[in-house]
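For reproducibility, we list the full input for the iron/sulfur cluster complex.
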Amino acid sequence: MALFRKSREITDFQIGNKVYLRGLIEYSNVCAKDCLYCGIRKSNRKQERYSLTDEEVIACAQYAFEQHYGSIVIQAGERSDHIFTARITAILKEIKKLSQGKLGITLSLGEQTLETYQEWFEAGAHRYLLRIESSDPKLFAKIHPHDKGHSFEHRLKSLHDIRKAGFHLGTGVMIGLPFQTLEQMADDLLFLRALDVDMVGMGPYIEHQDTPLYEASDFLLTRQERLDLAFKMIAILRLMMPDINIAAATALQAIDPMGREKALKYGANIIMPNITPNVFRNQYKLYEDKPCTDESPQECTTCLEARIHMIGSKIGYDEWGDSKHFNAHQKYINN
Ligand code: SF4
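The corresponding predicted structure, in tokenized form, follows.
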């Protein structure tokens, strides 16, 4: 397809053929929120809960460092109590210490106060991903409870606070939600450009049977159609924002075993091998059919390496692989 050829050409020209790794640590599935599409929402009583110990998180980070991953992502359900935020700060400092500052850290820990974002930035994290999920306030309201904790305006404010705190800003959307129109998806892309994001993680919506949104499954496109739309969104976004980082989301692989590799061919340049201890991976399920829940971190690394070589790309070991967009933007601000 001409679109995919063009997006590949632009990726090669702007980013090169390197893929950067973010070792994914799913720190905890305890969440104070109740998003209607999410398997670990607080009202899902069927979900067993876990939180890694500090030692387990540090061990994951140590593993990523020794494997020359360059960066990690710490992801968890949303909590904003002091015990949680202080623990994250302490963990960040410890990880920076063990890697002599060499391991890049992305956080994906939801909406927090500006002060908390600043504290985590100062402790050593430098990228933050908070997905808007849909840039259309009406669709956003259809997939979230109607209360103060799930407000579109607050999500937007948090995105601006993340940038204010100094982070590289990342966001993303779900593709193929029930009731979502093509026009809304096009608007999502325009939203990402207007927000001038540095990184994007977006993928197909995959239903989870223990969630309220599952009841709207009759309104869904087929999974293959949602996947095809996700590939097109990634490719178009690469044309619109040539120098940002785009992640090949795990949800792509839940539909097609080669989903992430195809996304890398169509414009993505980041991949997040899961390095969470195996016993917990099955319990961090935002959606059904999550892939790679049984492989060990070592198996994940070997498998990924082979897959990335297969598509003619190579891994940027020991590199942060930061968004070129952020650096260009900073240069512009400083001049
Ligand atoms: S999407 Fe995030 S904030 Fe919402 S319920 Fe799931 S983990 Fe919690």
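The longest helix spans residues 223-240. The chain has a mean pLDDT of 93. Both points were considered when choosing residues for closer inspection.
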